[in-house]
Protein backbone atom coordinates (compact mmCIF):
# COMPACT_ATOMS: atom_id res chain seq x y z
CA UNK A 1 0.00 0.00 0.00
CA UNK A 2 1.16 3.49 -0.72
CA UNK A 3 -0.14 5.52 2.22
CA UNK A 4 1.80 7.71 4.57
CA UNK A 5 3.44 6.18 7.63
CA UNK A 6 2.14 6.90 11.11
CA UNK A 7 5.42 8.63 11.85
CA UNK A 8 5.02 11.00 8.92
CA UNK A 9 1.37 11.76 9.68
CA UNK A 10 2.11 12.40 13.35
CA UNK A 11 5.01 14.69 12.52
CA UNK A 12 2.82 16.68 10.14
CA UNK A 13 0.13 17.04 12.81
CA UNK A 14 2.66 17.94 15.49
CA UNK A 15 1.80 15.03 17.78
CA UNK A 16 3.58 11.84 18.81
CA UNK A 17 3.19 8.65 16.83
CA UNK A 18 1.62 6.96 19.86
CA UNK A 19 -0.92 9.78 20.22
CA UNK A 20 -1.86 9.40 16.57
CA UNK A 21 -2.34 5.67 17.00
CA UNK A 22 -4.49 6.29 20.07
CA UNK A 23 -6.71 8.74 18.17
CA UNK A 24 -7.13 6.28 15.31
CA UNK A 25 -7.97 3.45 17.73
CA UNK A 26 -10.59 5.63 19.44
CA UNK A 27 -12.22 6.51 16.12
CA UNK A 28 -12.26 2.85 15.07
CA UNK A 29 -13.91 1.86 18.34
CA UNK A 30 -16.46 4.67 18.20
CA UNK A 31 -17.53 3.80 14.66
CA UNK A 32 -17.22 0.02 15.01
CA UNK A 33 -14.47 -0.32 12.42
CA UNK A 34 -12.03 -3.23 12.59
CA UNK A 35 -9.43 -1.85 10.19
CA UNK A 36 -8.22 1.54 9.00
CA UNK A 37 -9.62 0.83 5.56
CA UNK A 38 -13.03 0.15 7.07
CA UNK A 39 -12.72 3.33 9.16
CA UNK A 40 -12.00 5.36 6.04
CA UNK A 41 -14.95 3.79 4.26
CA UNK A 42 -17.32 4.53 7.13
CA UNK A 43 -16.16 8.13 7.38
CA UNK A 44 -16.47 8.66 3.62
CA UNK A 45 -19.79 6.86 3.27
CA UNK A 46 -21.42 8.91 5.97
CA UNK A 47 -19.62 12.08 4.92
CA UNK A 48 -19.00 12.39 8.62
CA UNK A 49 -16.76 14.81 10.42
CA UNK A 50 -15.62 12.84 13.43
CA UNK A 51 -15.59 14.85 16.64
CA UNK A 52 -14.90 12.74 19.73
Please provide a written account of the structure:
The longest helix is centred in the middle third of the chain and has 15 residues, at 17-31. The chain has three helices and no strands. By secondary structure, the chain is mainly alpha-helical.
Rg result: 11 Å
What share of residues are in beta strands? Answer: under 5%
Mean pLDDT across the residues is: 88
Strand runs, count: 0
Helix content: 55-70%
Shape, per Cα inertia axes: globular
| SSE arrangement, N to C | HHH
Sheet of most strands: none
Q: What class do helices, strands and sheet pairing give?
A: mainly alpha
Spans of at least 5 consecutive residues whose pLDDT stays below 50 are none
| Secondary structure tally, helices | 3
Q: Distance between termini?
A: 28 Å
What is the topological layout?
Blueprint: H1 6-13, H2 17-31, H3 36-45
Descriptive labels:
52 residues; mainly alpha; 3 helices; 63% helix
Short recap of the structure:
By secondary structure, the protein is an all-alpha fold. It is built from three helices and no strands.
Amino acid sequence: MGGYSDKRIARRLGISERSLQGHIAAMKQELGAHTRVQLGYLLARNETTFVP
